[in-house]
Amino acid sequence: MTVRIAIGIGFLFLLTAMPVQAAKISELVEVDVASQWARFFSFRDPAVRQILLGCLFMGINFGVLGSFVVVRRMALVGDTLSHAVLPGVAFGFLFTMSKEPWAILLGATLAGLLGTALVSWIKQSTKLKQDAALGMVLATFFALGVCVIKLIEGIPSVNKSGLDHFFYGQAAALGASDLWMMGGTAVLACVLVGVFYRPLLAASFDRVYTQSIGLPERFLYHLLMFLLALATVVALQAVGALMVSAMLITPAATAYLLTKRMHHMLLVATGLAIGSCVLGAFFSFVGEGMVKHALPTGPSMALCAGGFFALAFFFSPDHGFLIRGYRRLSQTRQITIENTLKAVYRAMESDRFSNEGISVRRLATEARETMEATQKRLRMLVRDGLASLARAGDVVYLTPDGLQHASRVVRNHRLWELYLTNEADYDADHVHADAEKVEHILNEEQVMQLERYLDYPEEDPHGKRIPSLRDTQRLPLRDLVGKEEDPPS
């Protein structure tokens, strides 16, 4: 898979146009919303194609490497790297007195690796934890980079244009050399992750196991740090030092909420990272015409990535906040309905099923609640077609579906009580509370297995009859009449 991605990147890279220099994306075209939208989505403008190619390369780096950062719980390491490379950018500029990409790449990479090595050294030689060491290195290196850049701005007769892009990012300022570095880093990341995928996967989830089977865990860690440093450095020009960590973590964190397998997470994170970069570049591209002011590229990309994360946070099928809340409400409602059905069934059972209707007042008295509360619960049964109320609302009748459902709940409850009594040595007086919880989550297959295991019992520990499978299959009420006997005293 990674080889195909690398080949695809190579072909796409051949399509890149000559570099176009500009201070902001919106300067590449006239400031008109309609024309900017048309130019962006037609892809006729060489600058747009170049920007999108850079977004593709950055998205691959962010998605592939960011996934391993998230699962290894190294989010702060990515933040430290993005800030630690800034002095390397400044010293690389001082070395050539120009914005030479290769000098800046070398300086920034060395600074990033030095920062991570310094964190490891502080952690190993002091009592400080990793988060404290990361915080100190992050702040110190970033402060050094800011100071050196301010010194460079004071040097006369030196072309300092574009240095500020390393703070907030500017995709329009990408040149051919920047794209070559981005493309090369993306290919390198895909190839190395493909070659070392299984060892990296093992080291990401269980370092002790990785060491026990003889895999070079330390080498894998430093390999990941090296790739992270390269990806961070090549993205500085487009995203900026302040936003690289956000783009490295946010798409991967979003994919983590949406997937369960690592290879799926890599693909989803890469797609989200590419989408965030493209949308951020688009909003920066049309920002001048929309809000009369140029939008910085890096923050625009980070906001788009944050928007995707917000959607996943609220609506993810497994982890979404609103989805989980809806499930909790549905589960609470279902438990209330089943408990009400069980109460009606027991009242009918105590009358030996001689009466189809049960007094609402009787149910309220047995439940020790007000008439209004009982009627509210019964109306839930009526809405679901499980019961009907007499015209005066003081008598409830179960429908065939309601009787079937009630028999199923009682069957689950009494089988579980018997299982706890016979197999777990519970006292018969102490099984009711546990059965009240389990009865709502047992499915039919589990109940049938439980029934077979208990050799098809007919009574629970209290002498009450356990409804059979046939009783739960919409039998007429008359088939239950006479089946119940008075329980032993």
What's the alpha carbon Rg, rounded to whole Å?
Answer: 33 Å
Order of helices and strands: HHHHHHHHHHHHHHHEHHEEHHH
Q: Judging by the overall fold, what is the CATH architecture of the largest domain?
A: Orthogonal Bundle
Major β-sheet strand ordering: 1-3-2
Give the C-level CATH assignment of the largest domain: Mainly Alpha
Structural class: mainly alpha
Word description of this protein:
- The protein is mainly α and 489 residues long.
- The protein folds into two domains: 2-316, Orthogonal Bundle (ABC transporter involved in vitamin B12 uptake, BtuC), CATH 1.10.3470; 326-479, Arc Repressor Mutant, subunit A (Orthogonal Bundle), CATH 1.10.10.10.
- The protein has 20 helices and three strands.
- The chain has helices at 2-13, 33-42, 46-71, 75-96, 101-125, 130-153, 165-168, 176-195, 197-205, 207-212, 217-239, 244-258, 262-291, 297-315, 321-350, 360-367, 371-383, 400-423, 432-438, 444-453; strands at 357-359, 387-389, 395-398.
- A three-stranded antiparallel β-sheet has the order 1-3-2.
- Strand 2 (387-389) and strand 3 (395-398) form a beta hairpin.
- Residues 1-7, 9-30 and 481-489 have low confidence and may be disordered.
